[in-house]
Each structure stands twice: as structure tokens, then as C-alpha cells.
Amino acid sequence: MSGYTEGIIILLCINAIAAMGVSVLTGFTGIFSLGHAGYMAVGAYTTAILTVEYGVHYIPAILLGGAMAMVIAYVIGVPTLKLMGDYYAIASIGLGEAIRLILENWQSVTRGARGYPGIEGYTTLYVSLAFFAVMAFGMFNLINSRFGRAFKACRDDYIAASLLGFNTARYRILSLVISAFYCGVAGALLGGFLSFIQPIMFDMIKSTELTSVVVFGGLGSMSGTLLGASIITLVTELFRPISQYRMLIYGAILVLIMVIRPEGIMGQYELGPRLFRRLKDKFSFRNRDNSEGRSS
Amino acid sequence: MAAIPQDMILELESINKFFGGVHAVRDMSFSIQKGELAGLIGPNGAGKTTIFNLVTGVYSPDSGHITFLGEEITSLKSYQVIRKGVARTFQNLRLFQRSSALENVMVAMQQHHQYSFLEGLSHLGRWSSMEREIKQRSLDILDRVGLIERAHQAAGTLPYGMQRRLEIGRALALEPEFLLLDEPAAGMNPEEVFELNHLIQGIHRDFMLTILVIEHHMDVIMQICPHIICMNFGAKIAEGDPDDIQVHPEVLKAYLGEEVEE
Fold first, then answer.
1. Residues in chain B within 8 Å Cβ distance of A152
2. B55 touching A, CB under 8 A?
């Protein structure tokens, strides 16, 4: 496999991990965030500093990067998640930018805006695939458990959810913390892939991209998120030769999807037997209509 | 104050609630015995749903005390009240529209089958046995409310009467001791109302539940509730059995208006 193909696969894995993180928060819990690149930055810098300054092995360092993102998400989330709907989205812009500016100005630790060089290239093809496989397994399991149902209940109607005995504030925080862990790990892997990180890589454009990938794939569909992340990553890579038009094409695709299919590629459905059953129902709709007509 | 008898399930003591300048609930006191099927009636805007919201922690009263099974629940949050064994339905249905009927019931049923986060993440340990049980018992509930054939249909696409029954099923899945039904017959035709009365009486008997029903259709309440509380303008105006209520002058005044002397 050529280095270039390998690079694309590694990027796919990294973007997919980050997108899964945003998906559980935005798609499943209904909390829009425009600051999640901040958590990627926290993961990337924590892991870089641990491996370079303290010689920690990269696997625990990546996990600690994710854990650091969780801690920060928790501290930020407890007061801000009291905001509902659009208000949290606005607050999250500020949070993401604040994290980036702190990294940019905390010269003694992060080396500031010039970036952090000399990170060991630990993100090989196998490392990224292994992280992706384990984290995707966990995420799909989670949304198919009582936690996934609880998140969706908080998303669809938080009053009904709390009157079914859910502590909705706790589930919102849980969802944010999980999503920060995924983004933190993705950031850490990105650092190991590029061997160099800079605060500007984790700006609002990156945050917006993460959220648009999730909306693009379908809110409330994890396989849609993976599909969306793959398409966006590939489009960005395939059109690299005509790089000046890349953002134009990227924008056009987003607009097209939102016009043709506003609920995203997958809607809220997962790739699997249920979608198949639904499609079958749809295509045999005429027959079912007739039989119902006769029986009544 | 005298000790609360053991068989008292809910007691409201001089509850007041203001919304700005509106005195929505005035000095409301009543109590419900364990095992009762009681009715709360009154004209539109009398404050019936506000009472439900006060009991289930959606609002907290400005003064007064609410006691459930001898325990003070006045300032508890909704989810804490629910966990003590209260369940309710809503006047304007609050189903999870996009989820299937089965999922709607499962999300309530899971409250009594809680496996750990790690088990949810890995699908190891108790995950499979508990999920199987949640699903099976939810299907049993759907069967009880007559929706088993619609289990996989999205809740929002069910006919209205079925959505009402699904909400009752979802509340039952919480395995409550006390069930609050907020206008379960709203928007139903007479045939559906008949079936609904049958269902409410059935679950009252089979699940040994205490039930408090809000209705402003007098005929529903009169048929199924031996104990009726009538309110108007936020205050209790009468309490008693159907025969008393039907001839109570205050009730007639609230529903039919006052005779004007000429």
C-alpha cells in the first residue's frame, strides 16, 4: 500500500472517531456544539506533552489525552449544559475558541502559536485502525443499550424523559463527556500522524466541519455519521489537485444534501436489518395498501 | 397534627401556586387512599393539570406540602418523584414520536433493569439477559394495552386513540404504585371512550394501582370513579361520590352557570 493511501485511511479513522464523538452528543442527545475542535486540541496537546516531555508510551498517553478532554468537558459542561437548544451552541463557540486561545498564549507549556513540533509518529495504519475498531464497537454498543435510549429520550422530549425517571441533566453531561473523550483521542491520533500540531488547526472551521459531517450523515444515525465522515474526508482528499476549488465543492455538496435530503444521508436509520425491513415495506407499499383496503 | 394513616398514598395540604398575578391553585387540600380510583374534574382552566404538575415536580408549590406514602415530596425534582413510584400521562401527548411503540415502552421499562455503563459499552455481563427481559416485559405491556400488532410502528404514526393507550402503557412500564392520567379520553369517540374506561378499570384491578384521573367529560368520571374531587378557579369546590357530585349546587354552578334572577 502506498504511503498516500495509508495516509488517507489513517485520516479516515481519525475523522470518523471525532465524528462519532460529536454524533453521540448532537445526533443522539440533541445538543448542538460548535466547539468540539477544542476537545481535539486538548487531547492532542496533552498527548504530545506527555510523550515528548515525559517520555510516556503513546498508548497510555493517547488515553490520558482523551481523559483530559473528558475532565475539561465535565468542568465546562456542569454550568453550561443548563442552557438548552441554540443557547448551548452559542456558548460552545466561545468554549472552543477559549481553549484554542489558551493553548496559543500559554507559551511555556504549549509553545504557543508556532506550534508543537517533534511528536513521535506513533499513529501508524494499524494503531489508527485498532483505535477506530475498538471505539466504533463501543459506540455502537452504547447506542444500542439503555444509555442510547436515554440519550434519545432526552433529545426528543426532555420533559417526558424526566417524567419517566431520567435525570436529564446527568445524561446530558454523560453524553458530553463521552463525546469529549472521542474527540480527545482523535486529536491525539492526529498529533501522532502529523508529528506537529498548532492551535490554529483546531479552530472554529474544524468544529463546524465536525458538526456538519454529523448533520450530513443524518442526526441520530451512527452509520450515517461514519458514511458522512468518509465522504467528506475523501472529497477533501480527492480534490486536492484543484485545491483552490476544494472548499467550493465541499460547500456545494453540503448545500445539495440539505436541499435534497434535509434529514441527512441516512436519516435516523442505521445500516442493518431494520433499514432493510423498512425499505422492503416501502417497496411493497402498494400491495399492503390494497390488502388493507379489502379488509376494512 | 394527627399521624397520617398508613393507607394514605397521596396527601395535598393547603397548596398554593401563583403564575405571576394568577392564583392558579388556591389552598388546595385533598388525599387519596391506597387502591382508590379517584377522579379530578372541573371546567377548562380550573387548574387540574397544574395539580398534576405540582405533584410530579414539574412545578413546585409556593406554599403547602405534598406527601407521598408518608414521605414529603414537595420540593423533589420530577425524576425523583417518579422514582418513588409515581407515573403520569399527558394531556397533550408526549410520546417519542420517531421511536417505535416498543421503544417508547422499553425506555420506561429500563428504569427497573439497570446494568452498568461498562456492560452497556461492551455488551457483556448482564446486558443480554436484561435487554431480553426489558423487551419481553415491554411486549407484555403492549399486549395489555392492545398494541402488540403495532409494536414496530413509529409512535407518531399511530391513530390518536392508540397513542393515548400507548402513553398509558409507557406509564405502566414504570411499575408505579400511583398513576396519574391527564384527560385520557380527550379527542376520543364514544366507542373508544368505552374501551378506555374498560382499560382503566382493568389496570386498576390487575396491577393493584391507585389511579387519579383528570377529565372534564363528566360521563367518563361518573362511570368509573367512586371518589370525585371537583375544582374551579384553582380551588376545591366539592368532594364526594358520583351521586353527591351530580347534585352538588357548586358543581352545577361551575358547569352550567348561575341562574340569573329577573
1. 96, 99, 107
2. no
CB A180 within 8 A of CB A39: yes
3-state SS, residue A285 = helix
- Closest chain B CA to residue A167: B79
Chain B interface, best mutation among A142, A143, A164, A270, by max B CB count within 10 A? A164
* CA A142 – CA A149 distance, rounded (Å): 9
Q: How confident is the model at residue B262, as a pLDDT?
A: 59
CA–chain centroid gap for A241, Å, is 27
Whether B2 has a pLDDT exceeding 50, the answer reads no
Q: Does B121 touch chain A (CB under 8 A)?
A: yes
Cell triple for A185: 483521542
Phi-psi region of B114 (alpha: psi -120 to 50; beta: other; left: phi over 0): beta
Using one digit for the tens of pLDDT, what is the confidence trace for B46-60?
889 999 999 999 999
- Residue B18's Cα: distance from chain center in Å? 22
What residues are paired with B229 via a beta bridge?
B40, B239
The answer to whether the CB atoms of B123 and A152 lie below 8 A apart is: no
- The gap from C-alpha A167 to its chain's centroid, in whole angstroms, comes to 24
Whether A146 and B114 lie within 8 Å, measured CB to CB:
yes
Q: Does B113 touch chain A (CB under 8 A)?
A: yes
What does the alpha-carbon distance between residue A265 and residue A254 come to, in Å, rounded to a whole number? Answer: 11
Contact B131 A145 (CB under 8 A): yes
The pLDDT tens digits for A256-277 are: 888 888 788 888 788 777 777 7
Helices (H) and strands (E) in chain B, counts: 10, 10
Angle (CA) A108 A113 A114, round 5°: 90
Chain A residues within 8 A of B114 when measuring between CB atoms:
146
Taking an 8 Å cut-off on Cβ atoms, the answer to whether A149 and B111 are in contact is no
Give the residue among A270, A256, A226 at the shortest CA–CA distance from A22: A226
**Domain extents for chain B?**
6-85+178-256, 96-175
Determine whether the interchain pair A150/B56 forms a contact, defined as Cβ–Cβ distance below 8 Å: no
Cβ(B171)–Cβ(B79) below 8 Å: no
d(CA A92, CA A32): 8
> How many whole angstroms separate alpha carbon A286 and alpha carbon A41?
53
* ipTM of model over 0.90: no
| Contact in structure between B91 and A108 (CB atoms under 8 Å) | no
Q: At what angle do helices A58-80 and A168-194 cross, to 10 degrees?
A: 140
SS (H, E, C) A136-205: HHHHHHHHCCHHHHHHHHHHHCHHHHHCCCCCHHHHHHHHHHHHHHHHHHHHHHHHHHHCCECHHHHCHH
| A268–B110 C-beta distance less than 8 A | no
Topology (CATH level 3) of domain B6-85+178-256 = Rossmann fold (3.40.50)
Taking an 8 Å cut-off on Cβ atoms, the answer to whether A147 and B111 are in contact is no
Nearest chain B CA: its distance from A119 CA (Å): 31
